[in-house]
Task: inverse folding
């Protein structure tokens, strides 16, 4: 199914051109004012909004601010379309929550690319925060770990090491990489520190901890099987 795009633009001729140019990639619905846009939002939430800053009446900045203040729409991607190219105008647009700012005139290919880029960013940000490997669940949002549905009480450091290893399953992670990623600010951390944290992590995971393998003289890796 094509992504649904709401276009808020008072220039009807430009809207017609955009409809024609974007129709192969997107389903586009055109509005000329804020009233009709918000009425439509009560029934349908689009995938993205293309918003002319200079729209008569409420104006693009105020429309964007209203969208960001509404819990139902606050996460909607917004791209501003505008002839205003001054730095201050762009800053104002981004300050009210714009995801991108396209200055007129623009090519349809550029706009399509920018729409896809914004949609891809939102898609990635909405991916589940839970990493599952067999009976192990690692929740990045809550920093929680479950094994066979049972919570495992890990320290912050143990959690970060487990997450790093699990995200790189069957790949060797060197001790230096662990130190640089997790303790770059602490010059007192050494290989022995890593070894201690790994031991505690294995102990807490029980038999499952056997999947955390030591690669002698190099580092560690998390394996799919024991």
Result:
């Amino acid at each position: 199914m094509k992504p649904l795009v709401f276009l808020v633009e008072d220039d009807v001729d430009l809207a017609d051109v955009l409809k024609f140019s974007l129709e192969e990639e997107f389903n586009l619905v055109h509005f000329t004012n804020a009233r009709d846009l918000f009425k439509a939002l009560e029934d349908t939430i689009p995938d993205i909004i293309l918003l002319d800053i200079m729209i008569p009446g409420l104006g693009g900045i105020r429309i964007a601010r209203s969208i960001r203040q509404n819990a139902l729409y606050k996460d909607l991607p917004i791209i501003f379309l505008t002839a205003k190219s001054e730095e201050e105008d762009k800053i104002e647009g981004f300050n009210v929550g714009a995801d991108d700012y396209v200055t007129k005139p623009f090519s349809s290919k550029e706009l399509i690319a920018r729409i896809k880029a914004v949609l891809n960013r939102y898609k990635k940000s909405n991916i589940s925060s839970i990493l599952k490997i067999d009976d192990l669940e690692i929740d990045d949002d809550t920093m929680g770990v479950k094994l066979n549905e049972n919570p495992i009480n890990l320290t912050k450091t143990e959690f970060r090491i487990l997450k790093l290893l699990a995200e790189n399953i069957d790949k060797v992670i060197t001790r230096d990489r662990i130190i640089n990623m997790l303790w770059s600010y602490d010059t007192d951390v050494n290989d022995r520190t890593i070894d201690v944290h790994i031991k505690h992590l294995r102990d807490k995971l029980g038999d499952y901890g056997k999947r955390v393998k030591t690669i002698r003289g190099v580092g560690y890796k998390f394996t799919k099987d024991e």
